[in-house]
Amino acid sequence: QVQLVESGGGLVQAGGSLRLSCAASGYTFSSYVMGWFRQAPGKEREFVAAISQSGISTTYADSLKGRFTISRDNAKNTGYLQMNNLKPEDTAVYYCAADYTPVLPTTGYEYDYWGQGTQVTVSS
User: Fold this and answer.
1) Ordered DSSP codes for 21-69
2) What is the pLDDT of residues 17-54, one digit of tens each?
């Protein structure tokens, strides 16, 4: 049974940092691209970042470059999203997802598996 479990969300003040984790099980983690998405109340789901199977290639939403960093540890079957200099507009539920593909998808419908999400709230 495939499972993606996010953790590390919470309440943080503007300018602070959080590191989200995504623990994967039930499939060959190292064979899948991992992506992060977010959804704020009343808004559509938004692409955040994606990382290739080896971790060598990454891509980010243009608006988040320089503040967010995606990474993975295939030995631990875990992916990460380091978020720095957080802003109130970063408040959202953050989801990790997995896709069996040689490219780095930036649209949610391309991903095969999804986690339940973790809430990130940034206060001003």
Assistant:
1) EEEEESS-GGGSEEEEEEE-TTS--EEEEEE-SSSS-EEE-GGGBTTEE
2) 999 999 999 999 999 999 999 999 999 999 999 999 99
